[in-house]
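Objective 1b of the project was to move from sequence-level analysis to a structural picture of ligand recognition. The entry below was assembled by the postdoctoral researcher (A.K.) and checked by the PI before modelling. It contains the amino acid sequence of the target and the SMILES of the bound compound, pyridoxal-5'-phosphate.
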Amino acid sequence: MNWSRLEKKQRVLKRLAAAGDTFGSPSYIYDEVVIKQQCKKILRLSNAYGMTIRYAMKANPNRSILRMINNAGLSLDVSSINEAARAKIAGIPFNKMMLTSQDVPMGPALDQLHNMLQQGLRYTICSRVQLENLARFNNIAEFDTAIRIHHGGGSGESDSRNTSSPYASFGILVDDIPIIKKIMLKYGLECGCIHGHIGSGSEPEIWKQHVDTMLKIIAQHFPEAHTLNLGGGFKVARMPGEEEADIRLLGEYAESAFLRFNQNYGRKLKMEVEPGTFIIANAGMLLTRILDIKKNQGAQWTFIITDGGINANVRPLMYGSQHPFALLNVQGDLVWKEGDPMARPDQCIVVGRCCETGDCQTIDSSGRIIPRSMPIPKVGEYLLVGGVGAYSSTMSPFHYNSYLQPSEVLLTENGDLFQIRQRQSLEQVIANEWPVIAHPCTAA
Ligand SMILES: Cc1ncc(COP(=O)(O)O)c(C=O)c1O
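Corresponding predicted holo structure:
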């Protein structure tokens, strides 16, 4: 998280300090400059014979964000029919999307899928059942299809983010490829694109092995393939001292592997990647207000209670992820940021306001609640949580304890704050509940 960029902008900091009242606290703030910068970086990825970058919209599906990323030149990875429909509403055509999902659409959802396929959506077959389901369409052979392979060499930020381990159910196992190909042949289906996503926050060395493994699989099983989609998963650094994947080196590695493949097999494969985290994780911060401070007699740490815990950022509880903090006072001074030296550091446990001990932002990678060194702020000031652009707004259980889904705000290139989603109202939370007048069991 680049707090230093923010630190120099006094005018922006003052606006942030007012944002808790204007937009409500907590609020997500997304930095347009960082999003555009990351899009430019990924578009410069080395490649041998052409490349498509697909933004994994599950990371952050806000429609203003989708438009911005699409305008920057990225296509989309979507993970459900609803995501595809949502992106279409944002103005992105289906032929710029690739759907890779665990879902098996049935009934009206299957008709919806058919309609999208006819408009150019690419569909990734991830299981035999999905393939048979697709075969209900008698024009199946006309569609743009891909096949997701599970080769077992996965890696992720935590075990639960490794999507190619023996415990992950995604895609078709290498041993099952012959049977899947037989079924495809029956339906006259050829898979132009071979897909593999091994996890989020993958180790770069394992990602390189993934490139080699996927190319071997294509050489052995898919003579008709023209594209290799390597998924997403590029590791980013949220905390000071964390090391992020060097995507320049990874791109160069992939480029030379694709060149070698052509020398060996006479095939010029196109490359695709699907980053979500890389594009948006470090563009996002959460503005939370400090509600309470508890220092119990004899306790070794201080509890800092904010209004933005798991219901705005569940990643520490889900994955043991570390997110950097900064303290902003009500006058708009950034009084401390993660990594700064401290005159009198304290040991603090930062928690939210939900009825869960695990509603905590200071959890280690093995899931234990741990204090963090930081100065003790004042009640009413702001704690900024960095690195929350991806999988925070979209994943967090915001309704728990009947809290409201927070607003989302864009910090524009010229330093304005522009609301791109307003905070939910209580009426919206209960809108689909029926008012029960008499419970049938209690009626006489
Ligand atoms: C199929 C697929 N592609 C891409 C991604 C994006 O991963 P990341 O956000 O780590 O780049 C995911 C994430 O779960 C995924 O499942």
